[in-house]
Each structure stands twice: as structure tokens, then as C-alpha cells.
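For reference, the entry.
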Amino acid sequence: MDTKLHTALPPADPTLRNPPQQAESQIEEGSDPQQWNWLEASPGKLAAGLLFGVIFGFLLQKGGVAKFDILIGVLLLENFVVVKIMVTAIIVGMVGSYLLRRMGVIELQINETKYGADIIGGLIFGVGFGLLGYCPGTNAAALGQGNLDALVGVAGLVLGSYIYALNSKFSTKAVSRWGQRGKLTLPQLVGVSPGVFVAIAAPALAGLLWLLDIAGY
């Protein structure tokens, strides 16, 4: 009787071994561009990252954006050097990444848009920028050129990273779920193709640079 009972039972559904939520989390974890194990990366990629980091810091310092008075001038709308540098970088990065993607050289790794995390993170960043006078990149450049006040920023970065790591479980279940929009881009948001967006945005930003220059900024 036991034998008949066992043979009459349907085979176990293999999908029950991996519940949908667990399977979904595994997929998301594998496709998350932030889940990058740098210890397993090739030495060439690590060397390239170090090289471009040094070049980036060198250009920041030479551009003058590691100086406290210039950065505070941006917040007071008295100095637009940083704005012009950022707009130029956006134009070059936008056009360059679009062309490289069209040629198949690169593949975009887009983080998910989460309004809650973006807004709260932006507010914290803005308050820190206003109080210290440096952002993370310019803070590192300022420390490299010998600005001792940048040491306060380094301490804040370390402490903030530690506090964030302690609260990552809470933020993942709460803040990160507010206003999830998926991998959203500006062309998708305005409903145009990437090529059309670049063709309109790049000249518009170049015009903004020209206006700032004409106005004496």
C-alpha cells in the first residue's frame, strides 16, 4: 500500500526549490553593476582604473577646482569655473559614450533609479558640500595638494561609509524601495531616442558655456 501511495504522488516541482523571490534576488544580484568583485578583475583593468584616477585628480587640481574659495564661489553663485568644467565633461562624456556604444566598443551599465535613495542621498551630499566646501573628488585632490582642512572630509567619508554599511540592511528594505523606476535614462524619460537626445542636448549645453563666457563668468 505504501508503494502504491508513493508512486501515485506527482513528482516534486523543481521550481519549489527556488522560490520566486529567491530566484529574482539571484538574478538581480548577478546583473547589478555594483556587484563587481575587484579582487577577481584582471590586472590590466585595475591598472587602467588607477591610471585614469590619477589623470582625473591631476586635471581637477590643474583646473583649480580643488581650491576652497572656487568651490564656495559656486555655491554662492559667484564663480562658475566648476560649472563650466562639469558641463564640458558632460558634453564630452555624453557624445563619446554614445559613439562608443554605437560602435560596439562599450556597453552601458545603468544603475536603477530610486527616487527615495536619490533624493535623500542628494540632500546629504549637498549639506556636506556646503559645510565642508569640497565634494569627494575635489576633497581628495585638495588633500593631495596639501590642504589640511581636507582631512576633515576624509574622516567624514570614512565615518559616513561605516554608518551606511551598518544601516545597509534597513536602507535596502526601506529607502531603496521608494520610487523605484528601474534602469531609467533621460532619453527614455522624455520619450526620444538616445541619438536625438544627444543631438539636442550637446549643442544646448555648448550654448550654455558660450553664454557663461559672454557674461564674464
